[in-house]
Structures
1.
Amino acid sequence: MRRTILVFAECRDGKLRRVALEALGAARRLAGADGSVHAVLAAPGGAADEAAALAARGADVVHVADDPALRAFAPEAYIAALRAAIEAVRPDALLLGHTAVGRELAPRVAAAIGAGHVADVTAIDETDGVFTRPLYAGKAFERRSFTPGRPWVVTVRPNNFEPAETLPAGEPQGTVQALPFTVPPILTAVRSLVRRASGQIDLAEADVVVSGGRGVRSSAGFEPLQELAGVLGGAVGASRGACDAGYCGYALQIGQTGKVVTPQLYIACGISGAIQHLAGMSQSRVIIAINKDPDAPIFSVADYGIVGDLFEVVPLLTEEFRRTQS
Ligand code: FAD
């Protein structure tokens, strides 16, 4: 097994996202001991630190695309940079994070180069080159394998792969080089970026997610959940029921039409467990459900179930976690 793998090293605010390092780790294993791993860094201004971090964590070559068009998210410019890297490297697979950016770029790059595309991959069999992705809210799994001759474009689900570690001292590090590419006419105009002021940890990358459903009853009902998430260093999510009721913004929605999360710990509070919600969280490592209805379907996917009123249970949990941490 000897493969050439290209990774799109996604950044946010000029910093590498954790999923970029996870994709790099997956790429290193998929390439095999004799294979090679290349990373594309779209970095207006160079981002020397991020390029060096990739080279120190196992990218044999870091290709830096540096152009002002990459400053705002203009998909045409990113696709042009990725196509230039694919042309130069001729990889067996291009790996991207299954993020909003990755989900936009991957199918467009695949279509542009006539490659196969597999999205939302949660496991890779490195020996046989088989990608696994969940279907039907995790009830079934699809396995797709490499066909020789054409590259695969693959998005990997955040929080599913071990991130690439820094190479031990003395091991040769990768090289960093400029990626020449031509910026095409940009058809997408980003007029402004509106950021949430909450400073909340990225839901897709959080190790702990505390989610509220219609059972929280109001936006103030989310406060105990925020406190619990704060103590655990996690993020707050929601069901669509809670979003539709106006208790929180749709940015928090988890599920089929929301975000897909795979944290180490998912705590569902006052969420019934509709199939569309399960589609976004059923692959979490450990699931705790708190619901006052013992027959709520969420208990069928939960590792631990607490039948009770969330307004009593959540503060008790918060207090207990705070006590064990102090
Ligand atoms: P409910 O089903 O009303 O459940 C509330 C739960 O809270 C109940 O189980 C109740 O027992 C419990 N409860 C009430 N009070 C308390 C209390 N004090 N303490 C403890 N428990 C309490 N849903 C999503 O979540 N994500 C999606 O992405 C999504 N996409 C959809 C796409 C489509 C096309 C469609 C048709 C639906 C989608 N839905 C989605 C909606 C989904 O079908 C459910 O309607 C929704 O998930 C229900 O939200 P809920 O569990 O918060 O509310």
2.
Amino acid sequence: LPSVSADEQNVPYQGLPGTKYERTFMMVKPDGVQRQLTGEIIKRMETKGYVLVGLKMVTPDEKLVSQHYDDLKARPFYKGLVKYMSSSGPVVAMVFQGKGVVDYGRVMIGVTDPLKSAPGTIRGDLSVDVGRNTIHGSDGTSPAQDEIALWFKPEEVADIKNCASAWIYE
Ligand code: ADP
């Protein structure tokens, strides 16, 4: 087994670009939960080599959704988006950890419009409509930190020493 210390396997995320074990916030939206795509989505992220360190099913209220999408409040679809996300049943909130997980997580998700997302991406493979695009993923390391803090208490995000790290990172 390659020699990797426990500390190297579990470097705390400092929120700095380039940090080896960074974290991102992802969320299976109500349509993804209803269509039972949660397992498929987690499987894609785990198979890549990213580690699930936070997971919960939440039925968000308008306040939480408004805070989450605060940067979009001037957009024409904002009101409908907040209503949809807060009145359609549960979402699955997740924190994934790993090298490049913020930006590469977005690559794995695809672009906002599923019909413009490449096959092989989550939205490209699993959805059709922009308002039912299955998943959210943080757009940058700073939003990732804010969103993790918004959706999770610190003690709800695990400090996992992943036993496969030495086989994923050199
Ligand atoms: P992304 O989720 O790809 O980061 P945005 O942050 O721009 O995209 O938008 C947040 C969410 O708002 C999108 O995922 C989508 O569900 C919804 N949305 C974006 N644009 C539209 C639109 N033109 N009409 C309806 N819903 C939209």
